[in-house]
Amino acid sequence: MPPASPPGPLVLDLQQHLECWGHNPENCPHVQVSRACCRGFLVKMGRRGFKVWRKRWFCFDWQARRLAYYSDKEESKVRCTIEFEDIEAVYFDHQRRAFKSPNRCLTFCVQTYKRLFYLVAPSHDAMHIWMDVIATAADENHTA
Q1: Is 56:105 a contact under the CB 8 Å cutoff?
Q2: 30: Cβ–Cβ under 8 A, 6 or more apart, which residues?
């Protein structure tokens, strides 16, 4: 009989996971990937008022089980935290619903149980890396 799986989150090497999916994070200057984290700038649509697009520093932390964004790269003040269990799906904005996106071809969505986030990546490679990284959290929610 095989040993029981240990409780808690799946152990995952994020960099190796991305390479298995055909990505080469080392060749994408817009994204910093380590074994447990993915960091980089994305442009996010605000949810209040005029829905202004702002550049934010994002950090996907597999060990802390969250996606957070900050005003700057120093990560001095967290603007918002999205817990993994709140992530429903991540998908390309194929219906072009993002209001005045700065780049429609690089716009993707992160759907949580509370809110829909519209994000724009700096390149196609960066967009696909971010989408696959965030999808790992959403996939875990649906298989748990």
Answers
A1: no
A2: 40, 41, 121, 122, 123, 125, 126
pTM: 0.86
Q: Which residue has the tokens 């910093």?
A: 32
Q: With residue 126 as reference, give the H or E element that holds it.
A: helix 124-143
Q: Give tens-digit pLDDT for 43-85.
A: 999 876 668 899 999 999 999 999 999 999 999 899 999 999 9
And the tokens for 44?
């996010």
Contacts of 123 (CB under 8 A, 6+ apart): 28, 30, 106
Residue 83 Cα distances to 39, 56, 78, 88, 123, angstroms: 16, 18, 13, 11, 25
Dist CA 99 CA 53 (whole Å): 9
CB distance 84 to 64 below 8 Å: no
The structure tokens 């709140």 sit at 86
